[in-house]
Design goal:
Layout lengths: L11 E9 L8 E3 L1 E5 L3 E2 L12 H6 L9 E5 H9 L13 E4 L11 E3 L5 E7 L5 H5 L3 H5 E3 L5 E3 L3 E7 L1 E4 L3 E5 L12
Parallel strand pairs: 5-6
Antiparallel strand pairs: 1-2, 1-6, 1-13, 3-4, 3-12, 5-11, 7-8, 7-13, 8-11, 9-10
Length: 190
Amino acid sequence: MAGCHTAAVPSSGRVVAVALDHSHRFSKRTVDDITLLEGLGVRGDAHAGVTVQHRSRVAADPTQPNLRQVHLIHAELHDELRTTGYDLEPGHLGENVTTRGIDLLALPRRTTLVFPSGAAIEVTGLRNPCRQIDDFRPGLLGAVVSRDDQGVLQRRAGIMGVVAAGGVVRCGDPITVELPPGPHQALDRV
């Protein structure tokens, strides 16, 4: 994998919103706080588990490790999409944690995001959005997945992670970014 440029990644940001859903629906409902369970995911969320919980992944191989326990999206993406006519709120794209102030997509693999309670999420990769996003808002898939000038696929629908340490995450919490030892690996889809 190519190296990741991390010089511009801020060392902190904040939680704008948290969300969960006990069923496999596309969007999640926002709540005041969520509890992260080490090695499992978000308590009460349909995607929590040691092995894959996303339906398409379960159909392919239900024994795969769950590298998608927690989904994070930067609020700046919502801001950008609003300017193109997509009125999105936290949780609409199925994310558990909406952040502000961190360029999530620029983080290297294995970055740890730490919250005041001691909860920690280890970043595993990029979310790979599917056609359900167009069922939610027609044309939205094309707004979050595109090709750059060299034809390389760009996924901008957030990142995925696993819970490295349990604890509560609340709206307004600061987030500390802890980069892994180098050399860094750029995020790829998980």
